[in-house]
Design brief:
By secondary structure, the chain is α/β, with parallel strands linked by helices. It folds into two domains: 155 residues, 3-Layer(aba) Sandwich (Rossmann fold), CATH 3.40.50.1000; 101 residues, Hypothetical Protein, Haloacid Dehalogenase-like Hydrolase, Chain: A, domain 2, CATH 3.30.1240.10. Helix content is 33%, strand content 20%. The radius of gyration is 18 Å and the shape is globular.
Length: 272
């Protein structure tokens, strides 16, 4: 990889700590990329409004990928493109999630809906996306503009089993992967973080081979495959580790992103 035209990072589990904080070292590392003329942006399973807190602190200027690629948004959160889950597919997905007795959240680009405001990880998600959910009594009347459905559980093994069942039930009509061990994301078909790599390559008019990606979970594998060089942080899932070009020694709680920049990205600028 002789040229780096973009660094694209996952957010949760990679760029921010377990407590959803940007460390000083991470902010400085993003600044070092800018000092070397390397554009930087993010992609995440978060809704667009969940990326707002990153824009000013990291001085983001490029489009960002939300919903695992389901939406592409400008730094002011205006929508460039969005994809939604077909209502009939959403009904099937919700049925499978209910059969496993896991929490269910619905997201559009602007809203977050759920039935149990005291359910597993709701408070964590409030802090993460800096937004309040709308409590609803049923799901059926909110399925016309859904970009992501999330199955939520503290029973990680059950959620892994649920993931397999969702994939079998939905087939090619939706994408399903875990963005965290406790979150199962269901998004529109043929849309993933690899889609974000393609969109940004087109936006910047650069080859995808000149893009570096950084991530930690199964849903990051698609962008690892599309990019020229990929970095898994130390807390990465087995699938992400296997797909990545290199592995950080540090985790997201010990400034893995800064390690990725200093150890694996900036030194490559001197390669010929």
């Amino acid at each position: 990889m002789n040229r780096i035209s973009l660094v694209l990072s996952d957010v949760d589990g990679t760029l921010v700590t377990t407590e959803k904080q940007l460390t000083d070292a991470t902010i400085v590392a993003v600044g070092r990329l800018a000092d070397h003329g390397i554009p930087f942006t993010v992609t995440s399973s978060r809704p667009p409004f969940g990326l707002r807190m990153l824009v000013k602190r990291l001085q983001l200027r490029l489009p960002m990928g939300a919903f695992n690629g389901g939406s592409l948004v400008e730094p002011d959160l205006s929508i460039i493109s969005r994809h939604c889950i077909a209502p009939e597919v959403a009904v099937r997905a919700i049925g499978v999630l209910q059969s496993f007795n896991v929490g269910i959240w619905l997201f559009s680009a602007e809203r977050w809906w759920l039935r149990d405001p005291n359910g597993d990880y709701v408070e964590r998600e409030r802090r993460t996306v800096a937004a309040e959910p709308t409590v609803i009594s049923d799901y059926d009347s909110h399925l016309s503009n859904v970009s992501k459905i999330v199955g939520v559980s503290r029973d990680f093994d059950r959620l892994a089993e649920c993931e397999r069942a969702v994939k079998a039930a939905l087939g090619a009509s939706a994408s399903a992967s875990r963005s965290q061990r406790y979150y199962l994301d269901i998004t529109p078909p043929s849309i993933d973080k690899g889609t974000v790599v393609d969109a940004l390559a087109q936006h910047l008019r650069v080859p995808a081979a000149e893009i570096v990606t950084i991530g930690d979970m199964d849903n990051d594998v698609s962008m690892f495959v599309k990019s020229g060089f990929s970095i898994a942080v130390g807390n990465a899932s087995d699938a992400a580790r296997e797909a990545a070009s290199v592995l950080c020694a540090k985790t997201n709680d010990t400034d893995a992103f800064a390690e990725a920049v200093d150890r694996f990205i900036l030194p490559r600028l001197g390669e010929t």
